[in-house]
Design a protein that fits this description.
- It is a single chain.
- The protein has helices spanning 10-26, 30-51, 57-75, 85-109, 114-121, 123-133, 137-152, 160-187, 194-215, 222-249, 252-259, 262-274, 280-298.
- It is mainly alpha-helical.
- It has one domain.
- The longest helix has 28 residues, at 160-187.
Length: 299
């Protein structure tokens, strides 16, 4: 009922916001849009990690997803008419993978430097690319990525938190792979941004219980809510808008190659935003994952 109670002036205002965002994105070359999207995501991750000092990761995830959902639904209200049971199931699975992926990644982020967590998580899309290609050369990229992960592992160290962080990052990567596969299915069933909006609502629902239980009254502090809104905008709404515009104007292969730079960008964001200094071994590991991802995308 509330969806039909929007006044006549509210709809044009909402559409003007979306049109303004698209117009601003249209003035930037496609490669610049992708790099801006990567920068936005990593700045958002840095801001989220700063929040871990006052809120547990699961509560920060709830803030990120809930605020991103509110903004996304406000800009582009999803159209749910005409959906059948299979559409709803596909959208729900998409949302579940999105919610669990963020929960796993933020738990990894609490235990690992941003660059390391993103590099490990990137095994998810890399696996999807290799499976879709099925070329012998891709075995080289798999071996290179595996070498990178081996370099990141704390061999011989009493670092249980690191092993836990690696486990969460690997789980986030597996869920990212599921997210990619499901996004293709949802994109063919839902019009426009409806699939993503539906998935964001589902992700909010599944992360709310654990987020509220761990965050408690801390989630109601105005400054925390404002920071959560910033994380949601930087990590979800802004990069999605930029990536969508870039994909309209550039080949998917080129887009994939540029996105492969994300682990390196994450390491730089961790260095400049959080002061996370990586050693040579960690930089070499991230380089292995980046090169493997670029190679798999090109072939």
């Amino acid at each position: 009922m509330a969806a039909h109670a929007v006044s006549g002036s509210a709809r044009p205002y909402r559409f003007r916001i979306g049109a303004a965002m698209r117009a601003a994105a249209g003035a930037v070359p496609p490669p610049g849009l992708v790099l801006l999207a990567i920068l936005s995501v990593q700045v958002g991750a840095g801001l989220a990690k700063n929040l871990f000092a006052v809120l547990p990761p699961s509560a920060v995830v709830l803030l990120r997803i809930a605020t991103g959902t509110l903004v996304l639904v406000a800009i582009a209200r999803p159209r749910l008419r005409g959906l059948n049971r299979r559409d709803v199931l596909a959208g729900t699975a998409f949302g579940v993978s999105l919610g669990l992926m963020n929960l796993s990644f933020y738990e990894a982020l609490a235990r690992l430097p941003i660059g390391v967590a993103v590099a490990i998580e990137f095994l998810g899309p890399l696996t999807v690319a290799v499976v879709a290609s099925r070329r012998r050369l891709d075995l080289l990229w798999v071996a290179l990525a595996a070498t990178g992960i081996a370099l990141l592992a704390p061999w011989g160290e009493a670092a249980g938190a690191n092993w836990a962080g690696i486990g969460f990052a690997l789980l986030a990567g597996a869920l990212w792979a599921a997210y990619i596969v499901l996004s293709a299915a949802v994109g063919g069933r839902f019009p426009g941004t409806t699939g993503l909006s539906f998935a964001m609502v589902v992700a909010t629902v599944i992360t709310a219980p654990v987020g509220v239980a761990t965050g408690g009254t801390g989630l109601l502090q105005p400054e925390i809510l404002l920071l959560g809104l910033g994380v949601g905008l930087l990590s979800s709404v802004i990069p999605y808008t930029l990536e969508l515009e870039a994909l309209r104007r550039m080949p998917k292969r080129v887009f994939g190659i540029l996105m492969s730079l994300e682990p390196a960008a994450a390491a730089l964001a961790g260095l400049f935003i959080l002061g996370e200094i990586l050693d040579l071994r960690e930089w070499m590991a991230i380089g292995c994952v980046v090169i493997a991802s670029i190679g798999a995308t090109r072939t």
